[in-house]
């Protein structure tokens, strides 16, 4: 490979998460030797169908099942050692050599048991205004990171690590005094320390040097995002967002690479929309159609099991996410879920305060009425399609419309969970 062309190609979600990033990283991983997670924590749930079984990866990069890959957990990630150990143990049972394939940046921040307690206490105190946290301790861990109090993976190698851990726990205990919340500060502490011992058996690296060395050697990297662009801490539907940068710039922040190293940006979206937890959802459906999307699409959180909210594709939000990320290629997921619909709708604008808008409003709490464009449904089973010539005309019209609106080609269409159920378009 020409060293001048080695890039960091990015795969990320363009909606509110749950777009199907895990499968796509797994499909694309055979083109790359290095796959890297750049942000988020175990609130991610990347579903992969492998060896006749389904797996949900929370912390481990989605290239883990590919032979010969190196999978980096980047410094922008927050890692719970307990969840990581359990996840790796399940994968190891299948004969996958996790220690050979996983590298962990020493700058990755650790989620402690008291982070999870703070998460639960804080969410309980919000009452009706809660954001729908997964209660994995993600937000409190990022708070400690930005507050310069956090523990990092590299700290577990320090001789005074136990003292550092106790100091942070005591800070958390003091912080929790503001809540009317009963808890045991030593919950899971023993298991957590055992999981830290397990973590020490992995290859702990300077992640930024690791990635940039790969690029210097002419090897491109696939960067894997978690959650979705509309959950970005800065540009998502604040405050109903996650605690990290989920957009393309997060790959630079979380891996320590320069903006000029970014190559292709693969933006993944569902042919309809879903959301888990609270927050705005202009095209949400509360009728039988919404329930049909939920049931046929198996729309239940991979991490929480919670039913996902469902609705029509939101073109206003999709174009916004394409703009933020500099998307070069679109990847459409789960169009087969709408096989039986006579009519399919897409929101092409918003009515806010009686006026038409074609952009995402600043006000998260604005009353939005979507303006829809209707399409004829394809009314046939897409799951058996293996090439573009197998696709019905109505579905091709739907694809063409999205490409025209976004100005970006749809190069991959996923019509099922297996690797084989994927159409690559020229």
Key attributes of the depicted protein:
20 strands; 12 helices; alpha/beta
Concise synopsis of the structure shown:
Helix content is 29%, strand content 21%. By secondary structure, the chain is an alpha/beta fold.
Overall outline: globular
Kindly provide the radius of gyration, computed on alpha-carbon positions and rounded to a whole number of angstroms: 21 Å
As a percent range, the share of helical residues equals 25-40%
Question: Helical region count?
Answer: 12
Strand order of the largest sheet: 9-7-5-2-10-1-11-15-19-20
Quaternary structure classification:
single chain
CA(first)-CA(last) distance: 22 Å
Give the DSSP E fraction (strand runs of 2 or more residues).
Answer: 15-25%
* Biggest sheet layout: 10 strands, mixed
Low-confidence stretches: none
Q: In total, how many beta strands? A: 20
Q: Tell me, rounded to a whole number, the average pLDDT.
A: 92
Structural category: alpha/beta
Give an overview of the whole structure.
- The chain has 426 residues and is α/β, with parallel strands linked by helices.
- 29% of the residues lie in helices and 21% in strands.
- The protein is built from 12 helices and 20 strands.
- The strands form 5 sheets. The protein has a 10-stranded mixed sheet, with helices on both faces. Strands 14, 16, 17 and 18 form a 4-stranded mixed sheet that branches. The protein has a two-stranded antiparallel sheet with strand order 3-4.
- Strand 19 and strand 20 form a beta hairpin.
- The longest helix is centred in the middle third of the chain and has 15 residues.
- The protein is globular, with a radius of gyration of 21 Å.
């Amino acid at each position: 490979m020409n060293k001048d062309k080695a890039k960091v190609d990015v795969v990320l979600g363009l909606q509110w998460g749950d777009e199907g990033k895990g499968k796509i990283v797994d499909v694309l991983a055979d083109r790359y030797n290095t796959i890297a997670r750049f942000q988020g924590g175990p609130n991610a749930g990347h579903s992969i169908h492998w060896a006749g079984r389904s797996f949900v990866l929370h912390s481990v990069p989605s290239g883990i099942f590919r032979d010969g890959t190196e999978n980096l957990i980047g410094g922008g990630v927050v890692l719970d050692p307990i969840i990581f150990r359990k996840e790796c143990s399940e994968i190891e049972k299948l004969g996958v050599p996790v220690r050979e394939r996983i590298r962990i940046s020493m700058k990755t921040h650790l989620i402690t048991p008291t982070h999870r307690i703070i998460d639960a206490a804080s969410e309980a105190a919000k009452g009706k205004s809660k954001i729908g946290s997964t209660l994995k301790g993600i937000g409190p861990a990022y708070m400690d990171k930005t507050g310069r109090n956090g523990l990092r993976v590299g700290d577990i190698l320090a001789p005074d690590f136990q003292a550092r851990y106790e100091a942070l726990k005591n800070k958390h205990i003091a912080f929790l005094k503001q809540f009317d919340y009963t808890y045991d500060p030593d919950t899971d502490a023993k298991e957590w320390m055992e999981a830290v011992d397990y973590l020490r058996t992995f290859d702990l690296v300077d992640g930024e040097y690791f990635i940039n060395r790969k690029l210097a050697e002419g090897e491109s990297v696939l960067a894997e995002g978690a959650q979705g662009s509309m959950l970005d801490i800065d540009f998502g539907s604040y405050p109903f967002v996650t605690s990290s940068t989920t957009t393309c710039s997060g790959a630079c922040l979380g891996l320590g690479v320069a903006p000029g190293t970014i190559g292709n940006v693969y933006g993944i979206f569902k042919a309809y929309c879903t959301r888990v937890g609270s927050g705005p959802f202009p095209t949400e459906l509360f009728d039988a159609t919404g329930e049909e999307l939920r049931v046929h699409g198996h729309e239940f959180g991979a991490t929480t099991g919670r039913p996902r909210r469902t609705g029509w594709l939101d073109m206003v939000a999709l174009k916004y996410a394409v703009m933020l990320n500099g998307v070069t290629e679109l990847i459409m997921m789960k169009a087969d879920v709408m096989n039986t619909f006579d009519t399919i709708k897409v929101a092409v604008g918003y009515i806010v305060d009686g006026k038409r808008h074609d952009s995402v409003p600043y006000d998260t709490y604005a009353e939005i009425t979507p303006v829809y464009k209707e399409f004829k449904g394809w009314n046939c089973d897409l799951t058996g399609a293996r090439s573009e010539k197998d696709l019905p005309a109505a579905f091709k019209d739907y694809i063409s419309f999205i490409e025209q609106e976004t100005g970006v080609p749809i190069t991959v269409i996923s019509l099922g969970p297996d690797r084989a159920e994927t159409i690559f378009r020229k």
